[in-house]
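Q: Could you fold this chain for me?
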Amino acid sequence: MPVAPRLVGQVSRRSLLTGAGALGALGLLTACGGAADPAAPAAAPPGAGAFPLTVEHSKGTTEIRSAQRVVTVGFSDQDPVLAMGVRPVGVTDWYGDYPFATWPWAQDELGAAQPAVLNRGAFTGTPDYRYEEIAALSPDLIIGLYTSMDDTQYQTLSRIAPTVAPPAGYPEWGAPWDEYTRLAGRALGVPDRAEQLIAGVEAQLEAAAAANPRFEGRTAVVAERFEGGQSFVRSSTDPRSQLVTALGFTIPPEIDELAGDLDGATISDEQMRLLDRDVLLWNIGFSPEVRGDVERAPLYSQLEVVKAGRSVFVDDPMVSAAWTWGTVLSLPTVIDGLVAKISAVLA
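A: Sure. Below is the predicted structure, expressed as structure tokens.
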């Protein structure tokens, strides 16, 4: 699951609506389903003649008849939807204080649209589907890609509008960026556009890997620091690690074993030798001051990767955020900056 900067201690998983509570909420949804905000922006229409269509996802199949009013409920879903030429009427806030929960790399695609922002500033690491607020936007399509969604949540959302859940065949939070992009393209009736965008980012990744053959086969660990005395290491299913492996690196199997089906694991400072690989990457742009806390850890200076100068702190807030989001729109922002840092320490 995504871990919120400065809020890791608050992360918990929970089912928001179960049993009688879910049934009660459904009654409310029926009552408010038509209460659309007349000021809400209209979505830019996808390819003419694309609908109706059917898409497969982790919860089954969904028939989609229109995508004029799209609400995104995943933490980074606005990016692939905007990339498809569709401007949502509602988006979900992740972190960062940008207008309409849209970071600079996606502002051109957002244009003058002003989507409603769900869960603004309320990130805890657990999806909080505001069903009444979603229904009030009168969506004709709900998209939930980078999120978790149990059966009850999916059924409740589907009572509001046709709902697309995360891609099938991947662990929770673990689908690669290109699969999120493909599913958005299929759901919005523009699969060819999705493939073109994917090809563009893949070409950039391939060029970076080709220009840095020394990356191939080296081991790398992506770590973050949210609380004193411990670090969070990202597994190979996490978007941050996926970018690193696309450049030629491998994530050590010990990290994946620790993480299990999750996208990362917490290790104490006493376990810091697990970070001693060819390259150690610290994603700290959301809180650069934690570098001092990392460097004061008793074992840190004893790691061979540190002695060799191959511990890299990615502290630029924009590069760090683009890396964290890991979307078809954000990746071009991070590739050059990250590659330059890694190449410098391996030269």
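A (continued): The mean pLDDT is 88.
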